Amino acid sequence: MIGNFLRRAAWGIPQIEAKAEVAAPEGAGAAEDGAETAESILSTFDAIEADLRGILGRIKDSNAGVARSVIDANIALDKIRGHVQGLAALAHSAIERSSTLALATQDLSASSDAIQRQVQNASSVSAAADHTVDDVLNTVKRLSDSSTEIGSVVNTISAIARQTNLLALNATIEAARAGDAGRGFAVVANEVKQLAHETHQATEIVRRQVQSVLSDATASIRGVEEIHQVVGRIRPVFEAVSTATDHQITATRSIIDASHDVSDFFREIEGATASITSEAECASQVTASAGASGEAVERLSTRLMVILRENPLTNRRMQDRFPIDLKVDVTSSGQLYIVQTVDLSEGGMWLQSDLLPEREVGHIFEARLDGIGLVSATIVRAGPGEWRTQFTEMASSVRSALLAHLAKIRENYAPLIDRAQAAASEITEILTQAIDSGSVSEAALFDDTYTPISGTNPQQFEAPCLSILQKLLPTIQERYLKLDPAMTLCVAADRNGYIPVHNAVYSKPQRPDDPVWNTANARNKRIFDDRAGYAAARNTRAFLVQSYARDMGSRMVRTREVDAPITIKGRHWGCIRTAYQI
What we know:
6-stranded antiparallel barrel; single chain; 64% helix; 8 helices; 15 strands; alpha+beta; 17% strand; Thrombin, subunit H; Helix Hairpins
């Protein structure tokens, strides 16, 4: 599409050059031939411009679709980033919790191992106690048996003592009957009786002690048997605890393995989210590139239209245009729209209002200009909320009123135009002197190699001639800025819209990560290639007056601007831009 346009433009240029060579023929009829040739040249460029408009219109429509897609893609990418960031946060949290669980489970496993060892020790002690109880029980039983045997012996001794006592009693009786002859025997019998009595008492004591030992042994046997039963009941409990502890150890080891697996899984998720984030960033860069491409095409269209419109050879609207806010009643397709002008000239006007309907190029309408009168006009360029128009018919009285109105406007602008042209003349002189003195070469002054300054937003640029311009321009620019309190800027821009040196108030160092503040306060070393900036930079007529909304970061400021070209050694270098707040 653009290739076809360029081929057509390339074909047209030799034709135009050939026609230009005969634009001023010698001999009779030169004026007539020159007029015809000029008209032919204009017709050729009109055709090129019409093609360009059609191409740019389609490009704009395509860019609008791309812009909407970029916006939708960015919204989707933002959502993806949000979800991925949330997932990454959850994965990271899960990893931390899994690690904590693994540590806690390891501690539990260690505790379980310790419990298992204690249970095993307790089981061993229980088994030893069981054996000891069996030994004690056997010993006590033997003691009981021994006590029983001792009781039997004591009973025998007691019976013998009783028999001995009876024998001693009988002997005593017999000794008494014998008289003196049995007196010695009576003594012996009495001693035996006494011994038998003591023996009987001793056996009674022993019997009681044996019975006490036997009773204690019996109680000990019952206690030992109860201990044996308790130990018997404890051993299965220890065995059950040991089995449960074995299961717990196995389970905790499984949990540890599972927690490690979970951690590995979430680490994979974390890595995947990082990859998704990276891919989303790449997609975002692609959409940003698409948006930037659309903006670049838009800038290109603006530049091409400016080149065609501001070129003296191809500009049909040779009349001066002046910014003016004039009420206009537009009648289009039977409907009335009350709108305002942006600028006005002898040949047409620029209308702007949200009320303006969409109309095709070539649409004819009527308009009543406040204080001037009724005119017929046709749309030569249309956009959302704006019509660029050309007057087609008006009464002579209306034309007189229009010319009178424009003359008054021109008279009001005359001091501003003179001021801009004077500033342009001074800058032309000082730059010419710099070339002649060798302070800067002509090649460097016209070199359009712009090197981006890293970390600046909006982007600032270095240029080969920047250092010399920083020395020469401030004095002139600041002096003219102080001449009128209404003036908001006075700066020199090269033919590409590059402003190397701005006024001091707008030349502050940029703040990091604050593009809004930078837009308003750090305007030096920037390229202003918007419609107004490029029109000023490319204008080669004596002056250009225009009105536009100036982007000051946090707000748009309606501004009127008076520009004059700067020509150095016969070459168009750029312009002086002077602006006034409306």
